[in-house]
Amino acid sequence: MSAVGTAARSIVRRRKVQTFVIALVVLFSTLTVVIALALLVAASAPFDRAFAAQLGAHAIVTFDRAQVSGTQLEQTSGRPGTVAAGPFDAVVLEVPEDFLWRTAGPLVVVGRPGPGGPVDRLDLVSGRWATAPGEIVVNYPAGGGRPADLLGVPITATGAPTLTVVGFATSMSGSADAWVAPAQMAALHPTARQMLFRFSAASTDAQVAAGVDRATAGLPPGAITATQSYLTGKRAFAAMADSYLPIITVFGLLGLVVSVVIVGNVVSGAVVSGYRRIGVLKALGFTSRQVIAVYLAMIATPALAGCLLGAVSGALVAPAILKIAFAGIHTGTAVIAVPAWVPVLCALGMLVLVVLAALVPAVRAGRLSAARAITAGSAPRAGRGLRAQRYLAGLPIPRPVSLGLGQLVTRPGRAALTAVVIVLGVATATLSTGLTSTMVAFAGLDHGDGVPVVDVVVGSPGNQHAVPERTDKQIEELLYAVPGADTVTARALRQVRLLGHPQPIYVNFYRGDTSADAEQIVAGRMAAAPDEVVTGPSFLTQHGVAVGDRIILELGGRRVPVTITGELIGSSPEAVDATWALLDRLAPGTPAVDYTVTLTPGADAAAYARSAAAAEPGIMVAARGPGNAATTTIVTFAAVFTVLLGAVAALGVFNTVLLTTRERRRELGMLKAIGMTPRQVVTLTVTSVTALGALSGLLAIPAGIAAHRLIVDHVGVVAFPESMKAVWHAPQLAALAVAGVLIAVLGALAPARAAARLTVGEVLHTE
Amino acid sequence: MTSEEIVVSLDEVRKEFGDTTALGGVSMRIRAGEAVAVTGPSGCGKSTLLNMIAGLDRPTAGTVTVRGEDLGRLTETGLALFRRRHLGMIFQFFNLLDDLPALDNVALAGQLTGASARQSRIRALELLGELGVAARRDSYPAALSGGERQRVAVARALMNRPALLLADEPTGALDSRSGEDVMQMLLDLNHSGQTLLIVTHDPRLAARCGRIVEMTDGRVSRERTPERAA
User: Fold this and answer.
1) What pLDDT is stored for residue B229 in this prediction?
2) Which CATH number is A468-617 given?
3) pLDDT category of residue A379 using cuts at 50, 70 and 90
């Protein structure tokens, strides 16, 4: 082994605790960064990858069959910068009954000869392609499964022959709900023609719009009935993940900053504490470069171990977190996983970061003269903060406390870095507390502030439960009649066409008590009239509409213009809420699919559920549990990052105190020799960082509150009202202020107790 | 100035560090007002013996009694409190706090006992005056000469009026003139009644004490008075 290797190994062996701390800090930091990056990547990359693999359509344009011929549309494919597929005949069928997993309503059917082609290459996930009359392939929205059991199911649409499902395919473009052979289309009476376009530039809405204009130039005006950009689908895909992005980004940035600060602090400290050794090495004949190499090797050894373990841990933990983040999202063929390059990049990046952080103090050390290095290694330079020390010595406080406070001014750089670490730890705790409070308040909307609530789902072939013998009204009467019921709200669900958009939307129709829903309005008012609807922020954004706008809904040939009268806190990006009166206009006689029963305060929800289910076997009744998926996810994220960053912050403090007590061994030994008790040594040592913790806590709380505000203002799928954003109360803030002290004390306690156990004789004798 | 009061009593004190025996069964007594020098070659156990008497380390066997207190029965905190009240220590390398001026270095020992900063500084200033370094009260250790630093260290050791002053090679880091000054100062203190135990390998310094304890290989090889030695 070379002299450099021997020297580096001896330092690593001698400074086991220091080495362990470096490895642990780097491990936690790498783990945090892997999780953050995995979530950031998963929010867009899987869609892009799956979309690219299918040569997805940047624009799906639907034309009025009466106004434009197939020959005219075929000419659009030769336009510069454009690749096209089609024209395909298309029709919107009305399916009167629920089928497969879908609710009754419109079904966009397109005639295609096969799943391939230059654009929108479908993935056939089960069965085969429709080639003969009477066969249909249905779009399967969620990837991963193989719905082979559903093959052979018949679909009966109004005015169309019965079609049998022979396959399931997935389109990342969302070009249709189902496909049939072109020859079948004549029997379905197509009303439209569909063109699928890919453009050379399609990164923005403007580029997609320009591509459509270029491709359709020269066609009769008014021929286009609907245009769907892939960006809408991409936003819908990432809607849930996007809503977490502000949170993930803030936590990820916090993790990176903490990592940089702690690694810098640890490395500088390790180099500074090794100055005496540097002097000895130089005296032995080591060159400056060799000294630098020794220190880089000394840091790189534990850092490499930390990077590797952190990357592996991150790769193991991140999939579970991704699973939570993407639960319930239609992912198509997109694979939500942690790409192998994420942990690799994080490990390499962190290692580079550590080496860079070590380089500056190592170079400084390499340039030191041997004599100066040996002198510098004994203790911090005298003369720093002397006036402050003098002032503190005269204060009427216990001397160990004033001595501890004095240590802050002896190494102001180290104190500042430690303060930054504590600030970030407390800011994270503050942010986490705020998010939890906001999300608990949000979840409370569905749970009536402690009032028991029971969910009732009507049995149907779709949910594989017995169909009720009672009618919709009779079920509602039953639910009122069971002891404990206070109010009953019925909900019907239908898919309807939104004019100007090729994909249907869902409409929730409510009957009965809707007072609880009124609390979810953040702008405008609840829908009251038959021509009014309300919806959430993601629907408004993705469909380019706002409160006050008019949209036209169509179902079964009935068109009803409606006004968006209010914005809900949050709802599906594909759904609006309306009154039962609108259902009577669009699809009269449609029964409720589920009911929400609010019980009287103190009623036994479980007993109610048992009684209702016994009275009507055709319904599924369950008492509603606490929390919801979004709340659980965000609170889980917040908790995971808070624990990680809190642990890293405490480790940062631990390292600082460890360095300081090592440098001050002689002083501590002397203080013990003149009568300082072990408890006083602990007091002195802990005080030095407790004061920092208290100060840092005060600085961190406003930062955490600002970060909380930033996040809750930018969650795409939820528009929180001010009451849910203003979650701060004095006792909570006081507790958070204590968090800084707690991090400081937790980090300082172990090295402080070790300092208290110093054997004075050895310490002073070795001097 | 000696009396019959026994300040220090060691009975068959042994100290082992692994396989190495630092003290191999030392017994000795020090009476109030005595000035005792412990001498011997490097590694003979002088400093270990001093550490045992100061309660800085615990014996493997035997008992150490100082002012009637069996140090082996005291906890770490009890030992610290005992040192604070009854012992003063002087080190070869002074061990002053670099960040405090001379006055506050001395006052620190008083403040540890709970005395106010003002009271402690008054007492510290008196001591610095008695030891001839009052003019350097506001100087930091880095600005003091070796002899001045040791005088400040002696002042700090005397701050709480200790029954026993322990000095480990007090002149070892000083030039000959400063060393002579410090030694004379310690002997003056002894003449005024201060019990003194000095560890030194300098036979000339040892010869100026009332009793010399010579150690070899962890044992007391000989005890004598300077007159006999002479």
Assistant:
1) 43
2) 2.40.40.20
3) very low
Q: Identify the burial level of B192 via C-beta atoms within 10 angstroms of its C-beta, where 0-12 means exposed, 13-18 middle and 19 or more buried.
A: exposed
Residue-level length of chain B: 230
**Taking Cα atoms as reference points, which of A377, A364, A361 lies closest to residue A280?**
A377
Whole-number average pLDDT of chain A:
80
Q: Among residues of chain B, what percentage have pLDDT more than 90?
A: 46
In chain B, the number of structural domains is: 1
Sheet of B20-31, strand order: B20-31, B6-17, B61-66, B69-70
Structure confidence by residue, pLDDT tens digits, B131-176 = 889 999 998 888 898 889 989 999 999 998 899 999 988 888 788 8
CATH number at residue B204: 3.40.50.300
| Domain definitions of chain A by residue range | 1-57+235-378, 68-221, 383-450+627-767, 468-617
ipTM (interface pTM): 0.72
Residue numbers of the domain that contains B187: 6-94+164-229
- A–B: how many Cβ contacts below 8 A? 110
Mutate to test the interface with B, among A399, A407, A665 (most CBs of B within 10 A): A399
Pairing of strands A505-512, A575-579: parallel
Alpha carbon distance A555, A560 (integer Å) = 9
**Does residue B188 sit within a domain?**
yes
Over residues A6-21, the pLDDT tens digits come to 777 767 776 777 788 7
Instruction: Kindly report the three-state secondary structure assignment for every residue of A302-331.
Output: HHHHHHHHHHHHHHHHHHHHHHHHCCCCCC
- Phi-psi region for residue B33, left (φ > 0), alpha (ψ -120 to 50) or beta? left
Of the two residues A641 and A506, the one the predictor is more confident about is A506
Facing residue for B99 by CB, picked from A394, A406, A673: A406
* Interval A390-406: pLDDT, tens: 788 778 888 888 888 88
Closest by Cβ to B98, choosing from A379, A673, A761:
A379
- Summarize the confidence of residues A428-449 as an average pLDDT: 75
Dig out the tokens for A142 from the structure: 């969620």
CA atoms within 13 A on the CB side of A490: 21
On whether residue B58 sits in a domain, the answer given is: yes
Cα separation, A130 vs A149, in Å, equals 17
Check: CB of residue A583 under 8 Å from CB of residue A590. yes
Q: Kindly determine whether residue A674 and residue B112, on different chains, have CB atoms separated by under 8 Å.
A: yes
Residues in B touching A395 (Cβ below 8 Å): 117
B158 located within any domain: no
Helix (H) or strand (E) holding A552: strand A550-555
Give me the residue label for tokens 């036994």.
Answer: A604
pLDDT at A617: 85
Give me the residue label for tokens 């624009």.
Answer: A59
Contact A675 B51 (CB under 8 A): no
Q: Does B198 have pLDDT greater than 60?
A: yes
Asked if A755 and A404 touch (Cβ cutoff 8 Å), the reply is no
Query: Pick from A379, A380, A760: which is nearest to B56 by CB?
Result: A760
Nearest Cα of chain A lies from the Cα of B94 at a distance, in angstroms, of: 9
> Is residue B103 included in any domain, yes or no?
no
